[in-house]
Amino acid sequence: xxxxxxxxxxxxxxxxxxxxxxxxxxxxxxxxxxxxxxxxxxxxxxxxxxxxxxxxxxxxxxxxxxxxxxxxxxxxxxxxxxxxxxxxxxxxxxxxxxxxxxxxxxxxxxxxxxxxxxxxxxxxxxxxxxxxxxxxxxxxxxxxxxxxxxxxxxxxxxxxxxxxxxxxxxxxxxxxxxxxxxxxxxxxxxxxxxxxxxxxxxxxxxxxxxxxxxxxxxxxxxxxxxxxxxxxxxxxxxxxxxxxxxxxxxxxxxxxxxxxxxxxxxxxxxxxxxxxxxxxxxxxxxxxxxxx
Length: 292
Ligand code: GDP
Hints:
Helix 8 packs across helix 9 and helix 8 packs across helix 10 (239-252). Strands 1, 2, 3, 4, 5, 6, 7 and 8 form an eight-stranded mixed β-sheet that branches. The protein has two domains: 8-171, Rossmann fold, CATH 3.40.50.300; 201-277, Conserved Hypothetical Protein Ylqf, Chain: A, domain 2. The protein has helices spanning 7-23, 43-48, 65-77, 93-103, 105-113, 133-141, 183-192, 202-216, 218-225, 239-252, 264-276; strands at residues 26-32, 52-58, 81-84, 121-127, 146-149, 159-162, 167-170, 174-175. It has 292 residues and is of the alpha/beta class. The chain is elongated, with a radius of gyration of 22 Å. The chain starts with 6 loop residues before the first helix and ends in a 16-residue tail after the last helix. The protein is built from eleven helices and eight strands. The structure holds guanosine-5'-diphosphate. The site of guanosine-5'-diphosphate has 15 residues, from helix 6.
């Protein structure tokens, strides 16, 4: 599979990110808890420069709880402020507010030393497409949040959302482009739905996902489709077994073509949809953070 990203979009996205980063004290970076590494763009480290940082592992409700904890600990070990969230639910607000204060402690203390009191932290949200940026901003802002914009000389046409007396959020998120030089990263991003499905071979993608699930989450797969899976050994992903599983699942789910043949394309879509919506259970595609 070949995943193209358009250089034109990339250049524009980068320029806009760089412009916005200049205006803020804090960059709130969203990644997908199911693929915390693939869901990031490493260029953000250079772009965010000396700004305070907060990494939010979003869609944590869909990811494996054990993997969530391992990744949270990993980012903390790396010196980031980090939290696990479900951007659709407002219960993250208190946690995120506390993390913002922690991330910006130095700035707040510096302000105080200079006699500046209560200057709100300015923050922006950034992340790859579909990671949940708009959902996060809407939930965080809630109904009561006031929009403030066009502060002369400061924000030049940018809209800010006043979250509370301590924090102002840029209302348009920064769009980061995924990096998929590594084909596995591309596949993982395709599996979570970050790449338009129209350009993907769903059958191939489903076989890739099933191969992974056979190795890492066999129970979830068997339970959902009531199809037994072969035991696999060795390191390679069991593509042959995965293709056979897809066929059996198509039959079990009655995805059949007119002549009674299993409709693999439809079964593949169903399976991808089951995975993306969490019906297969809580699954992380990047289960283990790199050893450091
Ligand atoms: P954006 O492109 O980064 O702004 O992403 P959106 O905010 O449009 O979200 C993309 C999709 O992910 C939407 O269908 C959201 O409802 C869904 N979504 C966002 N955050 C979460 C989350 O924490 N959990 C789950 N299950 N879905 C989420």
